[in-house]
Amino acid sequence: MFYELCEGGGQTLIRRTLQAEAGNVIHETHQCSIVEARVIWAALLSGQAR
């Protein structure tokens, strides 16, 4: 499993990719502001996101 912080055009989302034999499963957050996404990203990296 890995996470990506994706930014572009003033919008940001966080993508989670689960790697499996049958293929990758990708989940993404809703598009939000860069500020909001960076708060979520910091919580994710510190182990406090749910």
Detailed description of the structure:
With 50 residues, this protein is of the alpha+beta class. It is built from one helix and three strands, in the order βββα. Strands 1-2-3 form a three-stranded antiparallel β-sheet, covered by helices on one side. Strand 2 and strand 3 form a beta hairpin. 4% of the residues are buried.
Secondary structure blueprint with pairings:
Blueprint: E1 2-8, E2 11-18, E3 25-28, H1 34-45
Antiparallel strand pairs: 1-2, 2-3
Provide keyphrases for this structure.
three-stranded antiparallel beta sheet, 50 residues, alpha+beta
> What is the CA-based Rg, rounded?
12 Å
Estimated share of beta-strand residues:
35-45%
Q: Numbering strands along the chain, what is their spatial order in the largest sheet?
A: 1-2-3
Count of discrete alpha- or pi-helical segments spanning 4 or more residues: 1
Record field, number of beta strands: 3
Order of helices and strands: EEEH
Mean pLDDT: 92
**CA distance, first residue to last residue:** 15 Å
Helix content: 10-25%
Structure, briefly:
The protein is an alpha+beta fold and 50 residues long. Helix content is 24%, strand content 38%.
